[in-house]
Amino acid sequence: MKFYDREKEVEYLKTYCQLEPNSILFVYGPKSSGKSTVMRRVIKDLENSDIVFFYYNLRKYATPTKDEFLSIFFEKSDKKYLLNKLELNFKIFKFGVEESFDFNNIKLNDVFAKINESINAVVRERKKPVLVIDELQKLKNIYFNSGKSLLNELFNLFVSLTKMEHLCHVICLTSDTLFIEEIYKNSTLKNESEYYLIDWLSREDIEKILKEEGFTDEEINYAINYLSLPFEISQLINNKKLGLSVEKTIKQWINIEADRLKYLIDDTDLNEEMIYSILYKFKDKITLNYKKDIKKSEMPYIKFLIQNEILFFDVINGIIKPTSIIEWFAINKLIKRH
User: What is the CATH number of domain 7-197?
Assistant: First the structure.
């Protein structure tokens, strides 16, 4: 897919990677807002610099087990770090461990020692290591022999690498906003973390892209009222090439999302009317203020809608909104039927 208008986000992250490490950066945003695409663009732009990227894209894998985590993050080699051979035309690295290293009887301290060895090997070569983990929350349920949570202990390691030793940037990407809420409340990470939102595209950017792609003024004036995410633009371009009109495509998307939402509500044991009462809050506005518009008793229903990617919770800015403008129209279509 073509890279669309994220220059501001790319420049921010490129600059961040070249500063002295001092905190963990959590990059978050609605699903399909382009977080991974932006990060990969940053890595590509900096591939000839003195930065060594250790990039692990966990979205490519089913929720990993302990053994799978080890195979994803480490590779046996005589080098402390080495190019990831599974990523063609993409200069990213993996942590290296010696051939004799026993994955079957490994302790968590051994894992962290090997990560530190790889990071320090980069530093000794007068290069700058950057560790990027995409969809970090997939490591939540991994425990080592002593019963220690891998993720909780990783956070301690990340604080050490960034805030304490200033050795390595750690950038974590996620579209799981309930996970970001957990992180935000985590006392271990208080004053140790920064947050960067990659959100919807602006109307101006969408209009510019559609003009470049040869859409008519009439098509653009219709589409900009509904589009918000890069993948929607890509799909709209493909559908136009297939002979489908802009209006027909967008109406179909809204119908599909409204039907999906109806099915989710029908299929849950949660109180149906309470879910609809949450959705009705979006009848006349697209964003809610978490503190002013949401009661504590409504949070189970809010979380249900977040988990099913109907709503997006920006806990940092205290905002709840649909995951996309298309989703907002789908919500309004459904509540009109109700």
Answer: 3.40.50.300
92-111 core/surface letters (b: 16 or more CB in 10 A; e: else): bbbbbbeeeeeeeebebeeb
Phi, psi of 229 (to 5 degrees): -120, 145
Burial state string for 164-191 with b = 16 or more CB within 10 A and e = fewer than 16:
eeebbbbbbbbbbbebbbebeeeeebee
For residues 228 and 201, the answer to whether their CB atoms sit within 8 Å is yes
Tell which wins on pLDDT, 188 or 300: 300
Task: Give the confidence band of 333 by pLDDT, cuts at 50, 70, 90.
Answer: very high
Query: What is the DSSP secondary-structure string of 162-213?
Result: IIIT---EEEEEES-HHHHHHHHH-GGGTTTEEEEE--PPPHHHHHHHHHHT
* Residue 263 CB-half CA count within 13 A: 7
Residue 4: the pLDDT is 63
Contacts of 68 (CB under 8 A, 6+ apart): 61
Please report the DSSP string for 206-273 in residue order. HHHHHHHTT--HHHHHHHTTT--SHHHHHHHHHHHHTT--HHHHHHHHHHHHHHHHHHHHHH-SS-HH
Interatomic CA distance for residues 200 and 35, integer angstroms: 11
Q: How many residues does the chain have?
A: 338
Kindly state the tokens that stand for 282.
């979006």
Stretch 208-229: mean pLDDT, rounded? 96
Helix (H) or strand (E) holding 112: helix 108-124
Q: Is the pLDDT of residue 231 over 80?
A: yes
pLDDT at site 3: 61
Dihedral, CA of residue 135, residue 194, residue 308 and residue 30, to nearest 10 = -90
Q: Domain residue spans in the chain?
A: 7-197, 203-337
Q: Are 176 and 36 in contact (CB under 8 A)?
A: no
d(CA 149, CA 128): 28
Q: Would you state the CATH architecture of domain 203-337?
A: Orthogonal Bundle (1.10)
Residue 324, H or E segment: none
CA distance linking residue 136 with residue 182, whole number of Å: 13
